[in-house]
Automatic annotation (TrEMBL):
CDD domains: biotinyl_domain. One of its GO terms (molecular function) is acetyl-CoA carboxylase activity. This is Biotin carboxyl carrier protein of acetyl-CoA carboxylase. GO terms for biological process: fatty acid biosynthetic process. Coiled coil: none annotated.
Length: 155
């Protein structure tokens, strides 16, 4: 088989929307051409794995303590909070070894990344969407958060 013929086969596979693999075998050679399927997913810029602790059958999840709920209520009343855009697990840094994205006293603008929320093994960077100074972090690292839950109090 000539190189031009092989190139035509590659072009045929590349142009096809349904054909993803071609196997051609002759006495003296074997050709396998595969095209990876396109996977469309939301862009993710930073990912990391968080090791999960083994869960014992008798382990119970403790409800959120009252003082943190009070802080959330005060934050909502003040009007300037950064809220969770989805349900997920809150992470304050891009990896367990890294420094947090923001700390109390840090200035943020609308484009500042403030945390990561993990939902279904996808790690989503969350932007502040408002400008100001971080006054209080209202959730703990690794805590599950609800949609619309205040994460940061901003002044």
């Amino acid at each position: 088989m000539k190189f031009e013929d092989i190139k035509k086969l590659v072009d045929l596979i590349d142009a096809s929307k349904t054909l993803t693999e071609l196997n051609l075998e002759q006495d003296e050679y074997k050709i396998v051409i595969k095209k990876e399927k396109e996977i469309v997913q939301a862009p993710i810029t930073t990912t990391y794995e968080v090791p999960s602790a083994p869960v014992m059958p008798t382990q119970q999840i403790q409800p959120q303590t009252q003082p943190n709920t009070t802080s959330q209520a005060e934050a909502i009343e003040s009007g300037k909070t950064i809220n969770a855009p989805m349900v997920g697990t809150f992470y304050k840094s891009p990896s367990p070894e890294s420094a947090p994205y923001v700390s109390v006293g840090d200035k943020v603008n609308a484009d500042s990344t403030v945390c990561i929320l993990e939902a279904m093994k996808l790690f989503n960077e969350i932007q502040a969407e408002i400008s100001g100074v971080i006054v209080e972090i209202l959730v703990e690292d690794g805590q599950m958060v609800e949609y619309g839950q205040p994460l940061f109090k901003v002044k």
